[in-house]
Give the backbone structure.
Amino acid sequence: MGRPASLSRGGIIAAAARLVREHGVEALTARRLGDALGCDPTALYRHFVTMGDLEREVGDRFLGAVDVRAHADDDWRKTVRRICVKLRRVQLRQPRLAALVSAAPTRLANEKRITEALLRELDRAGLSSEQVATGYHALIELTVGSAAIDAPLASLPAAERRRTYNEWRREYAGLSPAEAPASVAIADHLYLGSADSRFEAALDLLLDGISLQRRVH
Amino acid sequence: MGRPASLSRGGIIAAAARLVREHGVEALTARRLGDALGCDPTALYRHFVTMGDLEREVGDRFLGAVDVRAHADDDWRKTVRRICVKLRRVQLRQPRLAALVSAAPTRLANEKRITEALLRELDRAGLSSEQVATGYHALIELTVGSAAIDAPLASLPAAERRRTYNEWRREYAGLSPAEAPASVAIADHLYLGSADSRFEAALDLLLDGISLQRRVH
DNA sequence: GCCTGTTTGTCAACACTGTTGACAAACAGA
DNA sequence: TCTGTTTGTCAACAGTGTTGACAAACAGGC
């Protein structure tokens, strides 16, 4: 029944993912994807109602790289930490895809898989149902939110990124000591190291907070 | 010297802010702003090198609504909490503006003002310089990141937002208990209440973690 | 085998977006 | 008065997502 399909949903998603991987997320446009597939851009609308739909699907495909298995000797905290670090790393490669995935849960396979793993580990930590939900929300907001914020800078070459951080630090260091004493005093410690290390430090603080809620310490 | 300026940087920013306040951030385009100002869209490029520049300036203007004064009886934690809650509330109204402000610090007045206040309070809490910087990064990532994530949904009418949360909850509740036991068990507690309350709970967890680092308890 | 209906890709077009370069109006200073 | 600079206007370019009309190509019923 009907004209034979030369395109398929899966094939389009795969091509779109390749496009993003090789040329960045800003390359994911109807026309460029049409070129890559050798078809007219508007043919995509036969398989996805909107470009946003396609983006969500591509985003979830990338989430497939997040391994959620708990290692044998790891406790809940180590596992949660590893999942969040990996999740952020994956999301960092897709600027806006990051926001979409958690703002409007894609209800797609990999998103569910990661959610299940985080809830499982928090439950294993000995938290109440309410505390598990609160902890999950907090972890997702920090992890995905941090990725959304850091993504623009993460796409820059390392040298330029370093230069940018130095500029910020000097900016705060150069403020008037009378008007901004705390900024001047702390400036040397701001934006040191990598964005990854800053996130991991924040994650550790949050995990400390979550740990405090446990019935069994 | 030269043709008299009918437009000014400040006037343009004010008009842009009004546009965003009344019609949302997606209304902030060169052509619509030109219409509102009664001038040609390209005239804006005489005062801002790019539209992104203008957005940053508008974003910082909105940050002016964040009161950073410490109330007389409030300790550092209450003040930090109030600033972050207010900061998020303001950022929520500007979807992408939120990301910009902290991803590439605007080096503008209000952003510096808020940074100074947060550093001041964390210092007052009795943290080392490194801990102040770490805590500041963590607070900003959670607050601004959370705003960036929640912004799309926050712009929806309350009824539809509630409906969306209910859908998500049902989605997780309806999973296979064999494959996703934790999701099914916790589903009833996911996405309850408002996004604001979820953020505040996350913020409290983070503040718990920060408190643990203090020399003096 | 032929007609019909459905699917699916193509094409032209619409309504947008940011941005640039040429041009002219209007002033300040020499 | 002449010159130079500023500043707004205009046309245009290269993009973007998306829609509607059209045609090719098949499956099923007669």
Chain A touches chain B through 63 residues (CB under 8 Å).
